[in-house]
Amino acid sequence: MDKKNIAVLVSGGVDSSVALALLKKQGHSLTAYYLKIWLEDELAYLGDCPWEQDLAYVRQVCEQLDVPLRVVNLQEEYWQHVVQYTVDQVKIGNTPSPDLLCNQRIKFGCFVDYVGDEFDAIATGHYAQLEAHGDLVTLKKACDPVKDQTYFLSALSQDQLKRLIFPIGHLPKAQVRELAKEFNLPNQTRKDSYGICFLGKIKFSEFVKHHLGEQQGELREYETDNVLGMHNGFWFYTIGQRKGIGLSGGPWFVVAKDTKKNIVYISNQYYSPEKRRNEFTVAAPYWIAGIKPSVDDAVQVKVRHGESVYACTLDWKADGGMAVHLEQDDQGLAPGQFAVFYQDNVCLGSGVISS
Predict the structure, then answer these.
(1) What's this model's pTM, rounded to 2 decimal places?
(2) Residue in 49, 62, 110, 197 annotated catalytic
(3) I need a labelling partner for 310 at 20 to 30 A (CA). Which of 70, 157, 229, 351 fits?
(4) How many CA atoms lie within 13 A of 60 on its CB side?
């Protein structure tokens, strides 16, 4: 293997630390980067800052592996490109996917601009695989279906993918944990982090409350239009939500929102046959290889990160958008979510659900 000069994005977690250790073992010249994107000034009052602990682990790992570490402040860029988008989407009743935009616009956008041509490649601890076919790079699922993160990478361009390395994408999570023990990394027993990247341990509802406040509105039964209770703002709810409704006689699910009147419609008959949810539209889909699939191609789709994938058919529209028909229902379809398309293990691209 040719030795390369590689920038490695590290977070303090096990995955990026093992990626760093593997590249070090392979003899590459490495510089570790920790991206400072948290909203420390704005959200410090919401709870203890978890990012100091992340950076402490990063420093320990880099010191043990003898890899230089640089901390890059991208707070302003993160607010502009990801956080403001998230607030704007929630405000109009949509369900955004900020982590997908973080990869496209920050980690492999602003950061790539920051380092310029200083490095041959940029590596991360993402669970995904890349395969070169001449001038084209294919994004493929990781071997671990539970940890696969291609959903969050589906908006990357060919120029971005050509610069990337995913050292652990071919490994199951259990083996990554074993490697962390073999390398005796200081964070080998640290638990995985979940949730939106810029919030850390802060609840999304608290973040939304900070930006949009509260405004009392009605909880109405979808079938009867009867008022069953009150809520503090439609922006705290997403389609398919079950928790947090707080009414007896359920389980209750959110089925619709009237954003102009601040009404949240709920139903305890969410899975009844007349409430089929197996179609949606994507206004402007993006295809990683620049080629859209034909209506006859066997295509699958994910509508959120995770193992669930649906067979689907595509109906192309004259304006370049498309209607997507799922072979089975998904009761959590909501505008603003990203739909990510696949052919077997290959990620084809993605688009935002418009309706």
Answers:
(1) 0.87
(2) 197
(3) 157
(4) 15
